[in-house]
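fwd from M.: "can u put these together and see what the complex looks like"

so here's what she sent:
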Amino acid sequence: MSDDASPSRAADRTQAILRTTVELAQEVGYAKLSIEGVAARTGVGKHTIYRRWPSKGALFLDAVLTPSEPGLDYPDTGDIVADLRRQICAAVDLLGRPPLGPLYRALVGEAQHNPAVAAALNERFIRPQADKTVARLRRAQQQGQLSADLDLDVAMDILSGPLYFRFLITQEPLSHEYVERVLDALLAGMRPTP
Amino acid sequence: MSDDASPSRAADRTQAILRTTVELAQEVGYAKLSIEGVAARTGVGKHTIYRRWPSKGALFLDAVLTPSEPGLDYPDTGDIVADLRRQICAAVDLLGRPPLGPLYRALVGEAQHNPAVAAALNERFIRPQADKTVARLRRAQQQGQLSADLDLDVAMDILSGPLYFRFLITQEPLSHEYVERVLDALLAGMRPTP
Amino acid sequence: MSDDASPSRAADRTQAILRTTVELAQEVGYAKLSIEGVAARTGVGKHTIYRRWPSKGALFLDAVLTPSEPGLDYPDTGDIVADLRRQICAAVDLLGRPPLGPLYRALVGEAQHNPAVAAALNERFIRPQADKTVARLRRAQQQGQLSADLDLDVAMDILSGPLYFRFLITQEPLSHEYVERVLDALLAGMRPTP
Amino acid sequence: MSDDASPSRAADRTQAILRTTVELAQEVGYAKLSIEGVAARTGVGKHTIYRRWPSKGALFLDAVLTPSEPGLDYPDTGDIVADLRRQICAAVDLLGRPPLGPLYRALVGEAQHNPAVAAALNERFIRPQADKTVARLRRAQQQGQLSADLDLDVAMDILSGPLYFRFLITQEPLSHEYVERVLDALLAGMRPTP
DNA sequence: ATGTAAGCGAGACGGTACGTCGTGTCTTAGA
DNA sequence: TCTAAGACACGACGTACCGTCTCGCTTACAT
């Protein structure tokens, strides 16, 4: 008697809870987010949340990642430098600024206290992105656009790391101009040119 | 009544509280650390803690940074690559592994939720280290050991970032060998050598 | 499809639920008894219980009274004192000690909070017993074995009351010897014999 | 700095909580009384209640008994029958009708589920009253106003029991006329007068 | 040397949230 | 059609900390 348009009560509720979680987190911040509050605002019993997620961290992870998961697909225009620039700027625009930025920052913060969140963050978001990046880098390397000596796993870290450092540690804003400067430095290398 | 050997009751108490905080954090983790617990274990009234620190985060920051503050002085042997390697390895050994590693990780995590902690972490630890690093890099650049084009502020980020990325995000262990690979990649640059 | 040997699925289930209720109440006490628990232990849906009884109290009343209802028939040997002694001792033995005693005590306790239970307890158990008692007392009075002045309704209360008082209020054990002492006092009266 | 008129914060709060408990119990009944509700209405943290009483039953016992404890003093006019009548009627008027009646009924009900409440009820209320009653009966017996054979401990039970039976079991109202009828029956005895 | 204040331990207090349990209603799938 | 299973909104449980507050007691300073 139920048609495709109303797939299941359970999924409806799950979505509603995730939406409220994002809303509330944006209003009061992750630290003051509470399962009690999410339940009340969604009009849902606390148990309905605990049945789905074991902790505030797990709920928050789902709430932040679910909408952006199919988000950052990798371009391949043939020009690795342009593609990296495009991809990194997209990531910075999505995760490095409001509205998602503060939530993503809080999510990474939570991962430092909660190993389950750290693991899930890696598996659901970081590793897939890294794999795509490494694959793209490998193609570029094979085409001679990157140094044959370049250690591709490390390349992933040196491309992401500086931005995460600025995002999490010094907490200065992330501009496209900054991305450019990082890319320039990485491409050229630190050693004096002969 | 107080002599040099017991400089001040207040300082004694402060030290005792900081010691307990580290102890307790190592035992139960930052998430389950509580001011109530620190007070009880130290044998101190809660007020005595609140009089000194405004929040658990601030207390924890002091507890983690106080002992390691006079820690990572920069060497200058004349060889910038050797000095960087030495310095980064020292930092990794101190902050990247037990016993201090988990505490430092939690501290950075807390900084994501608490702007005051983020600011204090930067001012008391990150910025001073960065300044020393940049100064050392500048000398090397002037001596021709680094590319004249190198953007020194960015250099600081690309040296630290990859290690923080691995420490905070993928949470894989930090070995000296990994430091070496990062340095190699950064020095050589990603572009193919002509 | 159902024959005499399996009178009805419904009745079977009802009996099973009542049995579990008694079992569980004996194990954990009435206060910790729950419909949820009874359903789980019986292997029955909660609805199947709610369809039959409106509340825990009503279920418990049925569970306690059903087996003992056809219990306390009144003897008439011609000797009213002997009959009262026999009857009261039987009641005390059945309801005043384990295994049924604690359940009956809890049932009366529940009746203090739940008027429906109080009413049902009276109608299904107390009043029928009282009617039989009064009838027996009336015969005895007509035969001259009891004072012609005796107020028979009150007689019922003064025979039962002291035992209930001891059972519910002072919660001291009920022995046959105690029954004897009560009967002696009631028969003789408190006034000095002239 | 504090004078006799403001004895202590603690006692103030205790009294406020007990008052609210009685109020709330009268409004919603014992079954729906909750520690949460009492705390909210009193404007007090739940812990402040749990610090003082281990359970709803214990709190309720205090709330009901505290005001009426110094309540039912025994008269001695020299006429035991008149004194019993006076005393029993006073008890019936206080505990057998609103406002206290329903609370006392609920208290006795709770005692059936909670041994601690049963014990406290006995020690703080029932036994002291019983002791006074027995003492008064003993004087009357020595003066020849009661049968020399009367078993005084049992006398206590047969005086109280019928009223408790009516109060708790049949739950009919308790009138002075009923008290009279019980006393008449008990004084005269059930045996036919020769 | 003696007030007098400041710091202190202890812990009560009003709150908020926790994670769990049971209620009574409702839905779903299977017999 | 009735059932078992269990999701659901709700409300209360009893616990844990929060940050504030009052208590006496002990230091240590200023008179």
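replying to her w this: Confidence is low (pLDDT under 50) at residues 1-6 of chain B.
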